[in-house]
Amino acid sequence: MFGKRGELTSSQIIGIVIVLAGFVVLLLFLPAITSIFGEGGDSDRELCKLSVIARATAPNAIQAGVPLRCTTEKVCLSESGKKNECKQFAGEENIRGVKLNIKDPEKAAEVIEKEVADSMFFCWQTMGEGKLDLWNRRTSLGDVAPMCVVCSRVAIDENLFNDKDKNFTDKVMNLVDVNDYMANKRPSDSVPFTYLQFFTDIGVGVPSREVSTEGNGEPSDQLAVVFGQVKVGKLSDAALSTAGTGVALYVGSLLTPAGRITANPYVAAGSAITILTATGISVYKTHKGQVLAGAYCGDFTSSDEKARKGCSVVRAIEWDAGKINGFCSGGIQGDL
Amino acid sequence: MNKEGTFLLKNFIELVIAAIGIVFIIILGVSLFNFYVNQDTKNAQKSLDSLMGKINALEDGENNTFLIRGVKGWSIVSYSKAQFPKPDKCFFESCVCICRSYSLEDKLDTFTGKGQADLCQNEGFCRKLDKDEVKVKQARICKSTTRVAGPYAGQVDTTCHYKGLEDKLNTIKVSKEDTSLLLEFL
Fold first, then answer.
1. CB-based contact A65 B57, cutoff 8 Å
2. What would the pLDDT profile of B66-118 be if each residue is shown by its tens digit?
C-alpha cells in the first residue's frame, strides 16, 4: 500500500482528501439533510435535543451563541385528520394532522388528552427534563428573566366548535381531562411509568385538583405547550438550597393562585414566582378551572463550575399573546 | 519529513488533523458571527413570511387575528400601489415590508416618508401584494419641537416614527378585501 519509506502515493492522498472533503460537506449540510428526510416529528425533536445539549454543555462565554434548533410542532385535530383543516395554522408549516372521531366522544376526548399529554412529555424530554442550563439573561433584580421555547401548538378545527349540530363542546370537550389522563396513562406500553410519574418522583399519585381563578368559562381552540426556565439570583439561593438537590414538581403545588406558591421553599425570587404563577394557564378544560404543568426546581447541569439554581416548567397555555408574553417575559427562542 | 524531504504518512496525518482543526474553528467562528449579527434579520424575515402566509390563506372579505413574533427595533410598514416614495424593491406594486424602525435620532426625512422607504430598501424585506391599497394601523411616537430662531421662528415641527415591534408575540388583525388590505396591531 505504502512505499518503502511509508510515503503515500498521489492517488492515496487524493482518495483521503476526497473522503475528508465529503465528511466536511456532510457536516455542513447535516441540518438540511435531516430536514429533507424527515419533516417534523422525531427528526425535529432530535435536532432540537442535540442543540439543547450543545447549548447546555457550551462554555458560558459562548452559550448564547449556540442556537436552539427547536421548531414548534403544530398539531391539528379535526374530523378529517387533514393537516390543513385548522385555520389557526393557515400559512404555517410543520403541521401534523390528527383525526378525531366525534361519533365516539370518549375516544375523541382521549385523542385530545393524549396529544396534549404527549406534547408535554416530549417537550419535557427534549428540553432535558428541566435540568439543563439553557440561557443566561439577567433581570435588574439579578434573576434571569423567564425564557421559553414553544414546543408545540395543539389546535382543534374551529368548525367543530362553530357547528352547533355537532355540539362538540358538550359532547367531547367536557370529557377532556388531561390531568386525569396524565395521572393514569403511560406514554407508551414500553414506558413503565405514567406521564405524571415522569414529571415527578415515581411515588407521586393522582395530582390534587386545584382551582384556578383563570379562565373565562369557554374552552380554547388552541393551546401552546411551552417550556420555560428561570434562574434565580443570590436572594433566593438560601431558599433554594433548603431542598438540597433538584426536586420535580407537578401541577398541584405550583399551578395555583399566587397565594399558595409562597409556601413552596424553592420559590423566593420574583422571576421564579412569575414563571410558576404566570396568569392565564389553561388547558382545554379552562372552563372547569383545571391547570396543568410539570416543573423542576433545583440545580441545573451546566458547564459552569458553580451549578446554577432555578426552575424549569413545561406548561400548556392558551395561545394568546398576553398570556404567552406574561409567562415568557425574557423572550421566546426557537422557530415558531 | 525525512532527510530526503519525502512526505511521510505521519506528516500527512498531522497536516490533515491540523487542517480539520483549522476548518472546524473557522466554521465555528463564522457560525457564531452569523448568529450574533444576523439573528434579528433572520427572525424579521421569518416574521414577514409567516404574516404573508396568513394573508395569503385568507379569502377576500375575510378577516382573522393572528400572533406573529416581533423583532425589537423593526416595524411592519405598508406601501399602497399609488403611494410614493416607497422602496424600489416594491416597483409599482403594493407591498408589505418589515424594516428597521427609524428613530428620531436618525434625522431622516420623516416629512416625506423617504427615510422609512430608504430603510426598507436597504435594511428590510418586502413582499408584493395584489391589492391597490395596503394599510398598517400601529402606534406611532411623535416629537414636536418649536423653532426659536430664523425666518420660521415659532413654527412647530413634528416628527413621528413607528413604535415598532416588541421582542415578543404581537397580535395582528388582518382584514382582506377585494382591493385593499388592512393590518391592525391590537
1. no
2. 898 888 888 898 999 988 888 999 988 999 999 987 765 555 444 455 677 88
Residues forming a β-bridge with A331: A147
Nearest chain B residue (CA) to A62: B32
Q: Which residues of A touch B6 (CB under 8 A)?
A: 5, 7
A13 touching B, CB under 8 A?
yes
pLDDT tens per residue across span A231-249: 765 434 433 433 333 444 4
Beta bridge partners of B157: B145
Is the CB of B56 less than 8 angstroms away from the CB of A62? Answer: no
Among candidate residues A66, A67, A136, A137, the one with its CA nearest the CA of residue A304: A136
pLDDT for the residue A95: 92
CA dist A269 to A127, A133, A173, A198, A261, Å? Answer: 23, 18, 37, 26, 11
- State the cell numbers at B5: 524531504
ipTM (interface predicted TM): 0.71
Chain B: give the shortest CA distance to residue A25, in Å. Answer: 12
A to B CB pairs, distance under 8 Å: 66
SS3 A169: helix
pLDDT digits (tens, 9 = 90+) for A15-72: 887 787 777 666 655 555 555 444 455 678 888 998 888 888 877 777 777 778 899 9
Domains of chain B by residue range:
43-140+151-185
Render A48-110 in DSSP notation, one character per residue. HHHHHHHHHHS-GGGGGGS----B-EEEEEESS--TT--GGGTT-SSEEEEE--TTSHHHHHH
Q: Alpha helices, DSSP H only, in chain B? A: 9-57, 114-123
A67 neighbourhood in chain B, CB within 8 Å: 35, 39
Distance from CA of B132 to the nearest CA of A (A): 22
